[in-house]
UniProtKB/TrEMBL annotation:
This is DegT/DnrJ/EryC1/StrS family aminotransferase. Keywords: Aminotransferase, Pyridoxal phosphate, Transferase. It comes from Bacteriovorax stolpii (Bdellovibrio stolpii). Gene3D superfamilies: Aspartate Aminotransferase, domain 1, Type I PLP-dependent aspartate aminotransferase-like (Major domain). Signal peptide: none annotated. The keyword Transferase applies. The lineage of its organism: Bacteria, Pseudomonadati, Bdellovibrionota, Bacteriovoracia, Bacteriovoracales. GO terms for molecular function: pyridoxal phosphate binding; transaminase activity. It comes from the Bacteria. Belongs to the DegT/DnrJ/EryC1 family. GO terms for biological process: polysaccharide biosynthetic process. Pfam families: DegT_DnrJ_EryC1 (PF01041).
Length: 372
């Protein structure tokens, strides 16, 4: 039967045997009453560190906590200013506020949809922040990642990298999170490396930051009932760790499948008013999102056509951070060149998930081509 619909995302395409292996693993953990902590967590952190070539990989409860813990671990304190991109997921902004610091939104550019060095420099000079959170959105990173890292270091601004969407990406042949001073990720099930529930991790090359993270995740514990810091309970579960261990064995195949999808779209949709956005040559993407830009005036009609054909779509994200109704009470400043606003009106995401089939990709492309 020919394809009649394609979801924006589905989580049900697991490798053969994955389900049974997971359930057997859960049974074994259950029998050992290993629910939180235990050898499975340490094993998973070891596998994460190996895969990402990180010195330290530390599991925690979710990707938002990971950012909060990283902020505290590097010493961000009450009323410190922290730069965040105006185009990101709200959690980046929220994390800054939740540790008592003040977010400053800094615009991205329209080419990479990420920060560039010139705007970042301007923001550092104008706001003199304590830290900045560079977000690697959509499955790639800004081509100026290394320059921004160097500038931040020289300026004494601690650079945290929100890698919730960039697991497995590389710049100049090197792991992005593995070469960051400190980076975070989310294992929300819909991310490139997802868990069986909420989970996250922090990666760092700095021993002191790593030690702080471990303490902050577990109630500021220095000993079982000695508490040296005000932390959180942000421990990662054993079932999530098991699921991550199993998923890591397949992560290269899943990324390859996602990359096949974004390559397919780019090739098939050449020359249309809907223009797929891709990373620069020095960046290895992970295919998290299929991103395209269209004249904002033409977007609603294309969305209608996708809906009619039962093709799922996304608009990631439909509003800049500084424009959210929850923002003004906390916003300590902004650099707004209008780009995040433009992207929020022009962006359209096509279906993209691991093991999407050629027939599904073809159906999506036929729908888009027919529309134009
Ligand atoms: C998903 C995501 C987060 C939050 O992760 P959770 O695990 O849902 O808390 C933070 N930042 C970005 C860019 C994300 O995509």
């Amino acid at each position: 039967m020919s394809i009649q619909q394609v979801p924006f995302i589905t989580l049900n395409r697991f490798e053969p045997g994955f389900r049974d292996e997971f359930l057997a693993g859960v049974a074994s953990l259950f029998d050992k009453t290993q629910f939180v902590g235990g050898p499975i967590v340490a094993e998973m952190e070891g596998n994460l560190a190996t895969y990402t070539k990180s010195k330290h990989a530390i599991g925690c409860a979710n990707g938002t906590d990971a950012i909060q813990i990283a902020l505290r671990a590097v010493g961000v304190d009450k009323n410190d200013k922290v730069l965040v991109p105006d185009m990101t997921f709200w959690a980046t902004f929220e994390a800054v506020v939740n540790v008592g610091a003040n977010p400053v939104t800094v615009d991205v550019n329209r080419e990479a949809c990420h920060w560039d060095l010139a705007t970042f420099k301007k923001a550092v000079e104008q706001f003199k922040p304590k830290a900045a959170i560079m977000v690697h959105l959509y499955g790639w990173v800004t081509p100026e990642t290394l320059e921004i890292r160097k500038f931040a270091k020289d300026a004494g601004v601690v650079l945290i990298e929100d890698g919730a969407q960039c697991f497995g990406t590389e710049i100049d042949g090197q792991s992005v999170v593995g070469t960051a001073l400190i980076a975070t990720t989310s294992f929300y099930p819909a991310k490139v490396l997802g868990a069986s529930g909420d989970a996250g991790a922090i990666f760092t090359s700095n021993d002191e930051y790593a030690k702080n993270c471990r303490t902050l995740i577990n109630h500021g514990r220095t000993d079982h009932y000695s508490h040296g810091m005000i932390g959180w309970n942000s421990r990662i579960g054993a079932y999530e760790s098991l699921f991550l261990n199993m998923s890591l064995k397949h992560i290269d195949a899943r990324i390859k499948s996602r990359m096949n999808a974004v390559n397919f779209y780019e090739e098939a949709l050449k020359g249309l008013p809907f223009k797929p956005v891709r990373a620069t040559k020095n960046v290895k993407e992970n295919g998290y999102c299929a991103v395209g830009m269209i004249d904002p005036a033409l977007r609603p009609a294309l969305i209608e056509s996708l809906k009619k054909a039962n093709v799922g779509y996304g608009t990631i994200y439909p509003g800049a951070m500084s424009m959210q109704s929850g923002a003004p009470a906390y916003l300590a400043g902004k650099i707004d060149n209008g780009n995040a606003h433009y992207i929020s009106q022009a962006v359209l995401n096509l279906p993209c998930f691991a093991y999407i089939t050629t027939e599904e990709l073809q159906y999506v492309c036929d729908t888009v081509k027919k529309h134009f």
